[in-house]
Design a protein that fits this description.
Strand order of the largest sheet: 1-2
Number of strands: 4
Number of helices: 5
């Protein structure tokens, strides 16, 4: 009887010990523990909004700013994006047209013994002057291309930062206080010298 009782107690202890162990899965020849993740329920809304604004601005410039909530300030930014983009595109078209115009005149002169095109208003311009002007318009066109790319990138970055800052709460505990104060110096000849100063205090 005592043996049966002892075996019963040992069996119960074994069951409790096994049930109290951590679960782990077998993969191949190794044992890999499966960690249990705690569900905190925290959702970073700023990161989600930032990704949405980034995608929208990359797809259509100004859409990210509009998706962040249309205000007067964001409306001005959208107008600035499209105004700047329109001016840059117009500048690109103008510089491209001038570049091809000067290039065409140079090609004509190269094929006709350095003689200008009849009736062309560039007939009085020297070949060296045409070459210089052509290079100027070519460089201007390249600068405009980089400017358009820069405006596009700035549009994306600005929408992302604006979306993230919209969910950034500094709270009411952040404060700064500036007040005058007196700074004491070393004592010399029994006299304490004091110097005026400014005290800056931050509260987080």
């Amino acid at each position: 009887m005592s043996k049966k009782l002892l075996l019963s107690v040992l069996f119960c202890c074994t069951v409790f010990a096994v049930s109290g162990q951590e679960k782990f899965t077998v993969k191949g020849d190794s044992l890999k523990r499966t960690p249990v993740k705690a569900d905190t329920g925290y959702v970073n809304h700023g990161r989600i909004a930032g990704r949405k604004a980034l995608f929208r601005s990359a797809l259509i410039p100004g859409w990210g700013q509009y998706g962040n909530g249309l205000t007067v300030y964001r409306g001005i930014k959208i107008a600035a994006i499209y105004t700047g983009g329109t001016l840059l595109v117009m500048s690109y078209i103008q510089n491209t047209s001038k570049y091809h115009e000067y290039l065409k005149e140079l090609q004509y002169r190269a094929q006709h013994g350095n003689n200008p095109t009849p009736g062309n208003y560039l007939a009085n311009v020297s070949t060296d002057g045409l070459t210089t002007a052509k290079e100027v318009y070519r460089r201007n066109r390249e600068v405009v291309i980089f400017s358009i790319a820069g405006l596009y990138i700035v549009n994306i970055v600005e929408a992302y930062v604006d979306a993230r800052l919209s969910y950034f709460d500094i709270g009411d505990n952040l404060a700064i206080r500036i007040s005058p104060t007196v700074i004491g110096s070393q004592t010399m000849y029994g006299y304490n010298a004091f110097n005026p100063g400014i005290k800056v205090a931050f509260r987080f």
